[in-house]
Amino acid sequence: MKEHAVYMQRCLELAAMAAAEGESPVGSVIVKEGRVLGEAFEKSRQLKDITRHAEVLAIMNAVEEHGSCEGAVLYTNAEPCILCSYVIRHHKIAAVVFSQYSGELGGAGSRYPILTAEDINAWSKPPQVIVYNENS
User: What are the CMP/dCMP-type deaminase domain coordinates in residue numbering (predicted)?
Assistant: First the structure.
């Protein structure tokens, strides 16, 4: 889908900025109704805070600027980890689009699927997960 391509390209630009600063190359963008609500790149090393992942910072940016990101789509170039998945679920993100799985700590593809679990009563329905492939 062309819309996904535009936002995934921005994620890659943000990821390159993170890499240039010695961070893990991850960038995230929050979009709702065609409008970018927030964006960020990884800053865990720079800020000496393991919670400063791109997804968390993008959500914080969206909430700070717009009060909420409920119902939005989160784009990121890497599968959100378990930590980020908790934050995504808490803020009621409607969909998550990513381009590569993160392995054993991924929030969707690991044995701890916090992002997609339907049996956590404290949260509403899990977000739609879309694995983006530029050829699809």
Answer: 2-112
Q: Check residue 133 and give its pLDDT.
A: 87
Of 2, 3, 24, nearest to 14 (Cα)?
Answer: 24
Residue 8 · residue 133 · CB < 8 Å: no
Cβ–Cβ under 8 Å, residues 26 and 18:
yes
pTM of the model: 0.95
- Which candidate in 55, 64, 79, 104 is catalytic? 55
Whether 39 is a known active-site residue: answer: no
pLDDT digits (tens, 9 = 90+) for 55-65: 999 999 999 99
